[in-house]
Design goal:
9 helices; four-stranded mixed β-sheet; seven-stranded parallel β-sheet; alpha/beta; elongated; about 250 residues; about 20% strand
């Protein structure tokens, strides 16, 4: 089973597309852009501006067919013939994080969350709350694409993303490493506010419609709810992640 600990290029870079986002990435001194890919059909002032900005930042520009740029961007309408690969310095394999002398004590595990906006907002919230890891599996979760970056308002570049194959694989690795596995479920009696947590804990956030899947659910240590006195059945998963993340901040204080 083992986690693929060798990081693929997809697990080192996040891609942005469109003239304005690429120019913003090139102008941001806090980001390291690996390369810019410009469609061979891109001409005129816009393309010249991109090339000037890339040269000023010391970033190589590669030419590719317009079709290739669309494929790489994963978006047929809004790439404007240009994309950039931006280094994500805190992104690494889950296996590497667990092998650390001091592995992260609190992590989130995304299971079946397929809406890029939710993944982006969770990355933004978890980073703001100072969490040391958000596990984003390669399968079953929205790809870390420009829509996720946009939803995170650019925070995704700096988020502590941990990669592995699947949520089930992550759950097995976490259990083996001594983590308690907690999942959010509306009917759980124990709440996020009164659960006693061990030194290491991972919190599973389930998909928008099905919630936490059975493959991960069978490994859960305890289910937790967010008490809602009002007449609402459930929270959006990114809102639930925010409640949980800042409850962890409150405890740490």
């Amino acid at each position: 089973m083992g986690d693929e600990s060798t990081i693929s290029p997809k697990d080192r870079f996040l891609t942005v597309y469109g003239r304005k986002p690429v120019l913003e990435a090139l102008a941001d001194n806090g980001l390291r852009v690996d390369k810019v890919i410009l469609a061979d059909t891109a001409r005129g002032p816009g393309a010249a501006e991109i090339q000037r900005a890339a040269k000023a930042a010391g970033v190589p520009v590669q030419r590719a067919s317009a079709h290739r740029v669309k494929v790489l961007a994963g978006n047929g309408k809004q790439d404007q013939g240009v994309l950039a690969d931006v280094l994500a310095p805190r992104m690494r394999a889950l296996s590497a994080a667990l092998a650390d002398r001091r592995p992260p004590s609190r992590v989130l595990l995304l299971d079946g969350i397929t809406t890029p906006a939710n993944v982006g907002m969770i990355l933004r919230t978890a980073t703001a709350a100072g969490l040391a890891g958000v596990i984003v599996p390669r399968r079953g979760v929205a790809a870390l694409d420009p829509l996720v970056v946009k939803a995170s308002a650019g925070v995704a570049f700096r988020a502590p993303v941990l990669r592995c194959g699947s949520a089930r694989e992550a759950a097995e690795m976490l259990a083996e490493a001594g983590y308690g596995l907690y999942a959010l479920g509306a009917s759980a009696r124990t709440t996020v506010f009164d659960v006693d947590l061990p030194q290491r804990a991972a919190f599973v956030l389930g998909g928008e419609t099905a919630g936490v899947g059975p493959e991960v659910g069978e490994l859960v240590t305890e289910w937790l709810s967010i008490p809602m006195p009002g007449d609402v059945e459930s929270l959006n998963v990114s809102a639930a992640a925010a409640v949980l993340s800042f409850e962890l901040v409150r405890r740490a204080r």
